[in-house]
Amino acid sequence: MSSFLRGTGVALATPFKKDGSIDYDGVSSLVDFCVEGNIEYLVVLGTTAESVTLSKEEKEELVAHIIKVNNKRLPLVLGIGGNNTHSVINEIKNTDLSDFAAILSVVPMYNKPTQDGIFEHYKAINEVAPIPILLYNVPSRTGTNMTAETTLRLAEMDKVIGIKEAVGDFTQVLKIIKDRPEGFLVISGDDALALPAVAAGGDGVISVVGQGFPKEFSEMIRLGLSGDTAKAFDILYQLLPVLDYAFEEGNPAGIKHILEVKGICEDHVRLPLVAVSSKLSDKIKKFIANK
Fold this sequence. Notes:
alpha/beta; TIM Barrel; 8-stranded parallel beta barrel; 12 helices; 45% helix; 13% strand; globular
């Protein structure tokens, strides 16, 4: 089992300056905050990073900066996915993955492949990937759900080590946990359902809110993994309001505002995303002030 992926990973946001350029000082602050908060690993260029609005050059510069700031303190997972299988394969082949422990690759979005199409997409990736692959199912963004049956078929492939499951259907999560092969990781992609998934036998979370509250979130998941669910759920119930606030007006606008209130970085996002409303801002500020 890839034990480094058990626990709490965070899908890093990309701090921007007011002019829209990448705020590299903010990136450094965020990485340090997560490391010091006892997070188990960092996920680079996921959805929360606004990766679809970053140019190829920006992605390369951002990745290099995160590698440098992290300085091998935590394992790194790199997001490489898309709805053009050929392009994904070429990106994997042409990317230096020596600093990364795994690839996180999302189910193809927009063109809505069948289950067989999803299977063949990942099969093609499995054939070329030089490092382990973590599947990523998030139907709310891709428009297509990868079923438990397809996930379990893919789990038999040699490079596929687990799934970040953000289906929002807990029954599907349970089906995967129940029938997965030994060593196959089931990692929640839903912050609010992460602890229930761990209690059911899951392996942890790749979190958005975890980068805003790294100590609390990582402790909650560790307690869950060790079987101390009562203490773990106490932490979850304390965090529950902010889990709603973080996604109320979309991700990563919510988590970026949380990070700004906590002094980590500013909350600028790139169009078509916009900053949170003053009403939501007030709720976030009140939660953090009273915590």
